[in-house]
Amino acid sequence: MESLLGILLRVGVLFAALVVLIGxxxxxxxxxxxxxxxxxxRGEPADLRSIHGVLRDVRAMHxxxxxxLGLLFLIATPVARVAFSIFGFAAERDRMYVLFxxxxxxxxxxxxxxxx
Amino acid sequence: MTxxxxxxxxxxxxxxxxxxxxxxxxxxxxxxxxxxxxxxxxDIRYAIGASxxxxxxxxxxxxxxxxxxxxxxxxxxxxxxxxTTVGALLGASLAAHVSTHAIAIVFGVVLLFSAYFSRKPRPxxxxxxxxxxxxxxxxxxxxxxxxxxxxxxxxxxVPVGWSLMFGAGALSGLLGIGSGAMKVLAMDQAMKIPxxxxxxxxxFMIGVTAAxxxxxxxxxxxxxxxxxxxxxxxxxxxxxxxxxxxxKANTRWLRLGFSLVIVLLGIEMLYNGLSGNI
Lengths: 116, 278
Prior knowledge:
A: mainly alpha, 76% helix, elongated, B: mainly alpha, two-stranded antiparallel ribbon, 11 helices, 74% helix
Protein backbone atom coordinates (compact mmCIF):
# COMPACT_ATOMS: atom_id res chain seq x y z
CA MET A 1 0.00 0.00 0.00
CA GLU A 2 2.66 2.52 1.05
CA SER A 3 5.00 1.81 -1.85
CA LEU A 4 2.02 2.21 -4.17
CA LEU A 5 1.40 5.65 -2.65
CA GLY A 6 5.06 6.50 -3.20
CA ILE A 7 4.72 5.69 -6.88
CA LEU A 8 1.50 7.74 -7.04
CA LEU A 9 3.37 10.76 -5.68
CA ARG A 10 6.23 10.42 -8.13
CA VAL A 11 3.99 9.87 -11.17
CA GLY A 12 1.81 12.82 -10.11
CA VAL A 13 4.79 15.16 -9.82
CA LEU A 14 6.35 14.07 -13.12
CA PHE A 15 3.01 14.38 -14.93
CA ALA A 16 2.48 17.87 -13.48
CA ALA A 17 6.03 18.84 -14.51
CA LEU A 18 5.35 17.63 -18.05
CA VAL A 19 2.18 19.76 -18.32
CA VAL A 20 4.08 22.78 -16.95
CA LEU A 21 6.84 22.17 -19.51
CA ILE A 22 4.38 21.99 -22.43
CA GLY A 23 2.67 25.19 -21.27
CA UNK A 24 6.07 26.80 -20.76
CA UNK A 25 7.18 26.03 -24.30
CA UNK A 26 3.98 27.52 -25.75
CA UNK A 27 4.36 30.58 -23.50
CA UNK A 28 8.02 31.11 -24.45
CA UNK A 29 7.36 30.71 -28.18
CA UNK A 30 4.59 33.30 -28.08
CA UNK A 31 5.90 35.74 -25.47
CA UNK A 32 9.63 34.91 -25.22
CA UNK A 33 10.72 38.29 -26.59
CA UNK A 34 8.42 40.45 -24.51
CA UNK A 35 10.05 42.42 -21.66
CA UNK A 36 9.75 40.81 -18.23
CA UNK A 37 8.47 42.59 -15.14
CA UNK A 38 7.93 41.01 -11.73
CA UNK A 39 9.12 44.04 -9.76
CA UNK A 40 5.66 45.39 -9.09
CA UNK A 41 2.97 43.18 -7.63
CA ARG A 42 -0.31 43.38 -9.52
CA GLY A 43 -1.81 39.99 -8.70
CA GLU A 44 -2.86 37.50 -11.33
CA PRO A 45 -5.89 38.11 -13.56
CA ALA A 46 -9.11 36.45 -12.40
CA ASP A 47 -8.92 33.57 -14.89
CA LEU A 48 -5.62 32.32 -13.41
CA ARG A 49 -6.95 32.35 -9.86
CA SER A 50 -9.69 29.73 -10.09
CA ILE A 51 -9.90 26.15 -11.35
CA HIS A 52 -12.78 27.12 -13.64
CA GLY A 53 -10.88 30.02 -15.19
CA VAL A 54 -7.71 27.96 -15.68
CA LEU A 55 -9.68 25.30 -17.58
CA ARG A 56 -11.14 27.99 -19.85
CA ASP A 57 -7.60 29.25 -20.61
CA VAL A 58 -6.43 25.70 -21.34
CA ARG A 59 -9.20 25.21 -23.91
CA ALA A 60 -8.04 28.41 -25.58
CA MET A 61 -4.49 26.93 -25.64
CA HIS A 62 -3.01 29.77 -23.59
CA UNK A 63 0.52 28.89 -22.45
CA UNK A 64 0.08 30.53 -19.06
CA UNK A 65 -3.21 28.69 -18.52
CA UNK A 66 -1.59 25.32 -19.32
CA UNK A 67 1.28 26.04 -16.88
CA UNK A 68 -1.30 26.91 -14.22
CA LEU A 69 -3.12 23.62 -14.93
CA GLY A 70 0.16 21.75 -14.37
CA LEU A 71 0.59 23.61 -11.06
CA LEU A 72 -2.96 22.60 -10.08
CA PHE A 73 -2.04 18.95 -10.78
CA LEU A 74 1.04 19.44 -8.63
CA ILE A 75 -0.99 20.83 -5.72
CA ALA A 76 -3.51 18.00 -6.16
CA THR A 77 -0.80 15.29 -5.83
CA PRO A 78 -0.36 15.44 -2.03
CA VAL A 79 -4.14 15.92 -1.68
CA ALA A 80 -4.71 12.66 -3.59
CA ARG A 81 -2.09 11.00 -1.42
CA VAL A 82 -3.99 12.00 1.73
CA ALA A 83 -7.29 10.81 0.19
CA PHE A 84 -5.77 7.37 -0.52
CA SER A 85 -4.47 7.18 3.05
CA ILE A 86 -8.07 7.39 4.30
CA PHE A 87 -8.78 4.09 2.52
CA GLY A 88 -5.48 2.65 3.75
CA PHE A 89 -6.34 3.30 7.40
CA ALA A 90 -9.93 2.13 6.83
CA ALA A 91 -8.61 -1.19 5.49
CA GLU A 92 -6.57 -1.53 8.70
CA ARG A 93 -9.73 -0.72 10.71
CA ASP A 94 -7.92 2.14 12.43
CA ARG A 95 -10.84 4.49 13.11
CA MET A 96 -8.79 7.10 14.94
CA TYR A 97 -6.47 7.55 11.97
CA VAL A 98 -9.32 7.56 9.49
CA LEU A 99 -10.64 10.54 11.47
CA PHE A 100 -7.24 12.29 11.59
CA UNK A 101 -6.75 11.81 7.85
CA UNK A 102 -10.25 13.10 7.08
CA UNK A 103 -9.47 16.26 9.09
CA UNK A 104 -6.27 16.86 7.08
CA UNK A 105 -8.16 16.17 3.84
CA UNK A 106 -10.88 18.70 4.74
CA UNK A 107 -8.28 21.39 5.54
CA UNK A 108 -6.68 20.79 2.12
CA UNK A 109 -10.05 20.89 0.32
CA UNK A 110 -10.96 24.11 2.10
CA UNK A 111 -7.73 25.72 0.90
CA UNK A 112 -8.17 24.54 -2.70
CA UNK A 113 -11.91 25.12 -3.14
CA UNK A 114 -13.36 27.02 -0.20
CA UNK A 115 -11.03 29.95 0.25
CA UNK A 116 -11.87 31.59 -3.09
CA MET B 1 15.49 41.47 -19.90
CA THR B 2 13.16 39.45 -22.12
CA UNK B 3 10.89 36.67 -20.87
CA UNK B 4 13.12 34.04 -22.51
CA UNK B 5 16.37 35.30 -20.93
CA UNK B 6 14.68 35.67 -17.55
CA UNK B 7 13.24 32.13 -17.71
CA UNK B 8 16.60 30.56 -18.63
CA UNK B 9 18.49 32.43 -15.86
CA UNK B 10 15.85 31.71 -13.20
CA UNK B 11 15.67 28.04 -14.25
CA UNK B 12 19.47 27.64 -14.03
CA UNK B 13 19.64 29.32 -10.60
CA UNK B 14 16.75 27.20 -9.31
CA UNK B 15 18.47 24.06 -10.61
CA UNK B 16 21.59 24.90 -8.60
CA UNK B 17 19.47 25.69 -5.51
CA UNK B 18 17.64 22.37 -5.84
CA UNK B 19 20.87 20.45 -6.43
CA UNK B 20 22.74 21.94 -3.46
CA UNK B 21 19.62 21.67 -1.29
CA UNK B 22 19.32 17.94 -2.02
CA UNK B 23 23.07 17.28 -1.59
CA UNK B 24 23.30 19.06 1.77
CA UNK B 25 19.91 17.90 3.02
CA UNK B 26 19.11 21.51 3.92
CA UNK B 27 16.47 21.87 1.19
CA UNK B 28 16.72 24.37 -1.66
CA UNK B 29 13.39 26.04 -0.89
CA UNK B 30 14.78 28.27 1.81
CA UNK B 31 17.13 30.11 -0.61
CA UNK B 32 14.62 30.46 -3.48
CA UNK B 33 12.71 33.48 -2.16
CA UNK B 34 15.86 35.50 -1.25
CA UNK B 35 17.40 34.52 -4.60
CA UNK B 36 14.36 35.73 -6.56
CA UNK B 37 13.81 38.93 -4.56
CA UNK B 38 17.46 40.02 -4.09
CA UNK B 39 19.01 38.88 -7.38
CA UNK B 40 16.11 38.99 -9.85
CA UNK B 41 14.20 41.84 -8.13
CA UNK B 42 10.95 39.87 -8.12
CA ASP B 43 8.20 41.08 -5.78
CA ILE B 44 8.35 38.92 -2.64
CA ARG B 45 4.69 37.81 -2.99
CA TYR B 46 5.31 36.32 -6.45
CA ALA B 47 8.54 34.76 -5.13
CA ILE B 48 6.70 33.10 -2.22
CA GLY B 49 4.04 31.68 -4.56
CA ALA B 50 6.64 30.19 -6.92
CA SER B 51 8.72 28.80 -4.04
CA UNK B 52 5.67 27.13 -2.51
CA UNK B 53 4.83 25.08 -5.62
CA UNK B 54 8.50 24.04 -6.01
CA UNK B 55 8.52 22.83 -2.42
CA UNK B 56 5.57 20.51 -3.24
CA UNK B 57 7.43 19.16 -6.28
CA UNK B 58 10.68 18.32 -4.46
CA UNK B 59 8.97 16.92 -1.37
CA UNK B 60 6.61 14.63 -3.27
CA UNK B 61 9.36 13.54 -5.67
CA UNK B 62 11.77 12.64 -2.88
CA UNK B 63 9.22 11.17 -0.46
CA UNK B 64 8.53 8.27 -2.82
CA UNK B 65 12.03 6.87 -2.28
CA UNK B 66 11.88 7.13 1.52
CA UNK B 67 8.49 5.50 1.89
CA UNK B 68 9.83 2.45 0.07
CA UNK B 69 12.75 2.08 2.48
CA UNK B 70 10.44 1.90 5.49
CA UNK B 71 11.89 4.85 7.41
CA UNK B 72 9.01 7.28 7.47
CA UNK B 73 6.21 6.77 10.00
CA UNK B 74 2.87 7.43 8.29
CA UNK B 75 0.95 7.72 11.58
CA UNK B 76 3.32 10.29 13.07
CA UNK B 77 3.20 12.17 9.76
CA UNK B 78 -0.60 12.19 9.51
CA UNK B 79 -1.17 13.10 13.18
CA UNK B 80 1.27 16.01 12.94
CA UNK B 81 -0.12 17.13 9.58
CA UNK B 82 -3.30 18.22 11.39
CA UNK B 83 -1.06 20.79 13.12
CA THR B 84 1.00 21.77 10.06
CA THR B 85 -1.93 22.18 7.65
CA VAL B 86 -4.01 24.28 10.08
CA GLY B 87 -0.85 26.29 10.82
CA ALA B 88 -0.27 26.73 7.07
CA LEU B 89 -3.81 28.09 6.59
CA LEU B 90 -3.14 30.60 9.37
CA GLY B 91 0.25 31.56 7.89
CA ALA B 92 -1.15 32.03 4.39
CA SER B 93 -4.01 34.17 5.75
CA LEU B 94 -1.53 36.26 7.76
CA ALA B 95 0.57 36.85 4.63
CA ALA B 96 -2.23 38.96 3.13
CA HIS B 97 -2.39 41.28 6.14
CA VAL B 98 1.30 41.72 6.92
CA SER B 99 3.53 44.22 5.09
CA THR B 100 6.22 42.85 2.76
CA HIS B 101 8.86 44.48 5.01
CA ALA B 102 7.69 42.36 7.94
CA ILE B 103 7.72 39.20 5.79
CA ALA B 104 11.30 39.98 4.70
CA ILE B 105 12.38 40.49 8.32
CA VAL B 106 10.79 37.21 9.48
CA PHE B 107 12.41 35.52 6.50
CA GLY B 108 15.85 36.85 7.45
CA VAL B 109 15.47 35.59 11.03
CA VAL B 110 14.34 32.14 9.81
CA LEU B 111 17.35 31.93 7.45
CA LEU B 112 19.77 32.74 10.27
CA PHE B 113 18.11 30.17 12.55
CA SER B 114 18.22 27.42 9.93
CA ALA B 115 21.92 28.10 9.29
CA TYR B 116 22.55 27.94 13.05
CA PHE B 117 20.70 24.63 13.48
CA SER B 118 22.44 23.09 10.49
CA ARG B 119 25.85 23.77 12.12
CA LYS B 120 24.89 22.87 15.70
CA PRO B 121 26.05 19.34 16.64
CA ARG B 122 23.15 17.07 17.49
CA PRO B 123 23.08 15.64 21.02
CA UNK B 124 23.48 11.83 20.98
CA UNK B 125 20.21 9.99 20.50
CA UNK B 126 18.56 8.68 23.65
CA UNK B 127 17.71 5.03 23.42
CA UNK B 128 15.44 2.90 25.55
CA UNK B 129 13.17 5.77 26.66
CA UNK B 130 9.99 4.44 28.34
CA UNK B 131 6.72 4.62 26.36
CA UNK B 132 4.67 7.79 26.84
CA UNK B 133 0.96 7.11 27.60
CA UNK B 134 -0.37 9.71 25.11
CA UNK B 135 1.97 8.54 22.31
CA UNK B 136 0.91 4.94 22.98
CA UNK B 137 -2.79 5.85 22.79
CA UNK B 138 -2.15 7.60 19.48
CA UNK B 139 -0.21 4.57 18.10
CA UNK B 140 2.80 6.78 17.35
CA UNK B 141 5.56 4.38 18.47
CA UNK B 142 7.18 2.47 15.65
CA UNK B 143 10.22 0.70 14.27
CA UNK B 144 12.60 1.08 11.35
CA UNK B 145 15.42 -0.91 9.70
CA UNK B 146 18.80 -0.05 11.26
CA UNK B 147 22.30 -1.48 10.77
CA UNK B 148 21.81 -3.90 13.69
CA UNK B 149 18.38 -5.01 12.48
CA UNK B 150 14.94 -3.58 13.22
CA UNK B 151 14.99 -0.86 15.90
CA UNK B 152 11.88 0.17 17.84
CA UNK B 153 11.37 3.64 19.32
CA UNK B 154 8.99 5.37 21.75
CA UNK B 155 7.74 8.86 20.95
CA UNK B 156 7.89 11.50 23.74
CA UNK B 157 6.44 14.98 24.47
CA VAL B 158 3.54 14.83 22.00
CA PRO B 159 1.96 18.23 22.91
CA VAL B 160 5.29 20.11 22.58
CA GLY B 161 6.01 18.45 19.23
CA TRP B 162 2.49 19.17 17.99
CA SER B 163 2.76 22.88 18.93
CA LEU B 164 6.15 23.20 17.22
CA MET B 165 4.60 21.61 14.13
CA PHE B 166 1.83 24.20 14.19
CA GLY B 167 4.53 26.89 14.17
CA ALA B 168 6.39 25.15 11.36
CA GLY B 169 3.17 25.05 9.31
CA ALA B 170 2.49 28.75 9.96
CA LEU B 171 6.02 29.70 8.81
CA SER B 172 5.62 27.51 5.75
CA GLY B 173 2.36 29.27 4.85
CA LEU B 174 3.73 32.75 5.56
CA LEU B 175 7.09 32.38 3.79
CA GLY B 176 6.46 29.72 1.12
CA ILE B 177 9.18 27.43 2.48
CA GLY B 178 9.07 23.74 3.49
CA SER B 179 10.33 24.59 7.01
CA GLY B 180 11.95 21.15 7.09
CA ALA B 181 14.51 22.29 9.69
CA MET B 182 11.80 23.18 12.21
CA LYS B 183 9.88 19.96 11.49
CA VAL B 184 13.00 17.88 12.14
CA LEU B 185 13.64 19.93 15.30
CA ALA B 186 10.15 19.13 16.58
CA MET B 187 10.43 15.40 15.86
CA ASP B 188 14.10 14.69 16.53
CA GLN B 189 14.73 17.01 19.51
CA ALA B 190 11.33 17.37 21.19
CA MET B 191 9.61 14.07 20.42
CA LYS B 192 12.84 11.97 20.54
CA ILE B 193 12.07 10.30 17.23
CA PRO B 194 15.22 8.77 15.62
CA UNK B 195 16.91 11.18 13.19
CA UNK B 196 16.40 9.02 10.10
CA UNK B 197 12.69 8.63 10.83
CA UNK B 198 12.38 12.39 11.58
CA UNK B 199 13.99 13.56 8.35
CA UNK B 200 12.11 11.17 6.09
CA UNK B 201 8.75 11.73 7.79
CA UNK B 202 9.34 15.49 7.64
CA UNK B 203 10.03 15.24 3.90
CA PHE B 204 6.77 13.40 3.36
CA MET B 205 4.88 16.04 5.39
CA ILE B 206 6.34 19.08 3.60
CA GLY B 207 4.34 18.55 0.40
CA VAL B 208 1.02 18.20 2.23
CA THR B 209 1.77 21.29 4.35
CA ALA B 210 2.70 23.35 1.29
CA ALA B 211 -0.44 22.19 -0.56
CA UNK B 212 -2.55 23.57 2.32
CA UNK B 213 -1.34 27.12 1.70
CA UNK B 214 -0.82 26.84 -2.08
CA UNK B 215 -4.61 26.87 -2.71
CA UNK B 216 -4.97 30.13 -0.81
CA UNK B 217 -2.02 31.69 -2.66
CA UNK B 218 -3.50 30.65 -6.00
CA UNK B 219 -6.89 32.21 -5.26
CA UNK B 220 -5.20 35.39 -4.11
CA UNK B 221 -3.28 35.68 -7.39
CA UNK B 222 0.22 35.23 -5.90
CA UNK B 223 1.14 32.29 -8.16
CA UNK B 224 2.34 33.59 -11.52
CA UNK B 225 2.75 30.86 -14.15
CA UNK B 226 5.53 32.74 -15.96
CA UNK B 227 7.65 32.78 -12.80
CA UNK B 228 6.57 29.46 -11.24
CA UNK B 229 7.36 27.53 -14.46
CA UNK B 230 11.18 28.04 -14.55
CA UNK B 231 11.47 27.89 -10.76
CA UNK B 232 9.54 24.64 -10.37
CA UNK B 233 11.17 22.85 -13.33
CA UNK B 234 14.65 23.97 -12.25
CA UNK B 235 14.30 22.98 -8.61
CA UNK B 236 12.73 19.63 -9.48
CA UNK B 237 15.49 18.75 -11.98
CA UNK B 238 18.17 19.88 -9.51
CA UNK B 239 16.78 17.83 -6.63
CA UNK B 240 16.40 14.70 -8.79
CA UNK B 241 20.02 15.00 -9.98
CA UNK B 242 21.12 15.68 -6.39
CA UNK B 243 19.38 12.54 -5.09
CA UNK B 244 21.20 10.50 -7.76
CA UNK B 245 24.74 11.67 -6.95
CA UNK B 246 24.21 12.00 -3.18
CA UNK B 247 25.77 8.64 -2.33
CA LYS B 248 29.13 9.42 -3.92
CA ALA B 249 29.54 13.06 -2.92
CA ASN B 250 31.46 14.32 0.12
CA THR B 251 29.08 16.99 1.38
CA ARG B 252 30.99 18.39 4.39
CA TRP B 253 32.45 21.43 2.62
CA LEU B 254 29.33 21.89 0.55
CA ARG B 255 27.24 22.02 3.74
CA LEU B 256 29.57 24.61 5.26
CA GLY B 257 29.51 26.71 2.08
CA PHE B 258 25.73 26.51 1.77
CA SER B 259 25.28 27.49 5.44
CA LEU B 260 27.43 30.58 4.80
CA VAL B 261 25.29 31.47 1.76
CA ILE B 262 22.16 31.11 3.92
CA VAL B 263 23.65 33.43 6.59
CA LEU B 264 24.53 36.07 3.97
CA LEU B 265 21.06 35.87 2.40
CA GLY B 266 19.54 36.10 5.89
CA ILE B 267 21.47 39.30 6.69
CA GLU B 268 20.58 40.75 3.27
CA MET B 269 16.86 39.96 3.78
CA LEU B 270 16.92 41.52 7.26
CA TYR B 271 18.66 44.64 5.93
CA ASN B 272 16.23 45.03 3.02
CA GLY B 273 13.22 44.42 5.25
CA LEU B 274 14.37 46.93 7.88
CA SER B 275 15.32 49.59 5.34
CA GLY B 276 12.01 49.14 3.52
CA ASN B 277 13.49 48.04 0.18
CA ILE B 278 11.36 44.88 0.06
